[in-house]
Design brief:
By secondary structure, this protein is mainly α. The chain is built from 3 helices and no strands. The chain has one domain.
C-alpha cells in the first residue's frame, strides 16, 4: 500500500527525507495495528515534520 508520487521528483532529489517520511508513516501503521495509538500519533507527527522539511527543501531546490 505504498503511495509513491508520480515522477518521483522529491524521492529522486531528496531520497533521505523521502525515505524518512515513508518510514515514519510505516511505523505509524504498525503501531496502529498493534493498538499503540499514542506511538502511532507520535510517528504521524514525525512524518508531518519530515514532510514539512521535504516541502521546504523542494521549494528552495535544496538551496538554503
Amino acid at each position: 500500500m505504498s503511495q509513491k508520487p508520480s515522477g518521483g521528483g522529491a524521492r529522486v532529489r531528496f531520497p533521505v527525507l523521502a525515505a524518512a517520511a515513508e518510514r515514519h508513516l510505516s511505523w505509524a501503521c504498525d503501531f496502529a495495528v498493534a493498538g499503540d495509538v499514542d506511538s502511532a500519533v507520535d510517528a504521524i507527527r514525525d512524518a508531518h515534520a519530515t514532510l514539512a522539511e521535504l516541502r521546504a527543501s523542494s521549494s528552495t531546490d535544496g538551496v538554503r
